[in-house]
Prior knowledge:
Radius of gyration: 24 Å
CATH topology of the largest domain: TIM Barrel
Bound molecules: zinc ion
CATH superfamily of the largest domain: Metal-dependent hydrolases
Low-confidence stretches: 1-25
Number of helices: 9
Helix content: 10-25%
Number of domains: 2
CATH architecture of the largest domain: Alpha-Beta Barrel
Structural class: alpha+beta
Distance between the termini: 54 Å
Largest sheet: 15 strands, mixed
Mean pLDDT: 93
CATH class of the largest domain: Alpha Beta
Order of helices and strands: HEHEHEEHEHEEHEHEHEEHEEEEEEEE
Amino acid sequence: MKKLTLTLLLLFVTLLGFGQNHNHAFGRKINFPNVEGYVTLKADLHIHTVFSDGSVWPDIRVQEAIRDGLDVISLTEHLEYQPHSADIPHPNRNRSYELAVRLARNSNLMIVRGSEITRSMPPGHSNAIFIEDANPMLKEEAMEAFQEAKNQNAFVFWNHPTWTGQEKDGIAKLYDLHRDLISKGLLHGIEVVNMDTYSEEALKIALDNNLTIMGTSDVHGLIDWDYETQHGGHRPITLVFSKERSIESLQEGLTAGRTVVWYNNLLVGKEENMNLLLDASLKVEKVEYPGNTSIAHVTIKNLSDTEFELRNLTDFSFYDMADLVKIKPQSETVIKVKTKDILSDFDLEFEVMNAVIAPKAHAKLTLHVARTDN
Length: 374
Ligand SMILES: [Zn+2]
Ligand SMILES: [Zn+2]
């Protein structure tokens, strides 16, 4: 009997343990809904392997991306920095791309050819992706490398402008050389998120110069170790709103600036793109007035993998919480709204605290609520 009690106790403790992992229950694969008119492609376009200064072979990068449910990656080896070249000689700068394409051929993962133009500041480091051949990009002068990228019809973005290896104060600054690159159409995007950094200054540079907002892992070690995927963590990614699921459409979407970056629980993007994502992610499922009360129970479904933090902007107050509402990922949340009278429909307005659309500015969300119980 004692033994049985112990067994039951152990079982209970085990179940409790599983229960605590519940916000991981929807799995490791990253999920965001398609938005109005576009397919949402999940991209990590800044990654390293042993073919530059990373620690793993390209097959690991392909498998990590498949596990994360990504649509597309780019292995962007440093053109000018190859610390493993004594052990792994590789004069061909396309080699890691070629291996990754072969390794991904039986999956849905798309691989984009890319390279990191690795220079001191300015211009710092930049990724050229959608290139045709990395080898001719190896040039003496930085400007020549950017020109070669343009000749190959590349999309080029400025990497980690906030990196303390190049900017001691951690503040991204636009130099004359960058202005020159932008005016000549040689620079199209900027990393606002890189690895474990977020740059408000880079976001301002993106908005002021109409550059595409990018977020990447820039992973050198293992995704699992850097981002603790076993505890529900995830790498930073760029969501690209594309007309189709293809590399051509991806490039069109990036060039048009249709991105939202997902970093920890934060979303960063231009207002129009953020609005597309919010509209697709948060849906009013059910609106009921239970009993004889005038408290509307509004069920909101979150179709995305991020937890939304909403701040109430209306005069309504809520029955069981203050003005801050958390909408858990991939689940439903009920907000009990004290409407005083029973209303057939009304608007809920929120500031979305984890959706940044400009420095210190958050997206606004209006949910139109109509009764479903009459
Ligand atoms: Zn770099
Ligand atoms: Zn890098």
